[in-house]
Amino acid sequence: QQEKEDLQAKLKLGEHLSQTAGKSEATPAPSKSVDLEMKQLQCKLKNLNNEISKQSTTIKSLKNEVQEKEERIRELQAKISRLERDLNMKRHLIEDLRSRLKRNQENEKTCNETLETLERKVKALAEDCSNKKTSIDSLKQRLNVATEEKSQYEQMYHKAKDELEKKDLKLSSLESKMIETECAMTELETAASQQLHGLAKQSEQALETVQKKLLLTNDKVEEFMTFVKALTRELQHSVQELRTKIKQAKKMGEVRACKKGLSQESVQLAASILNVSTMDLEEILEVEDDEETAKTKMEIEKDKEWLQYIQKLLEAQ
Question: Rounded distance, CA 41 to CA 207, Å?
Answer without folding.
Answer: 181
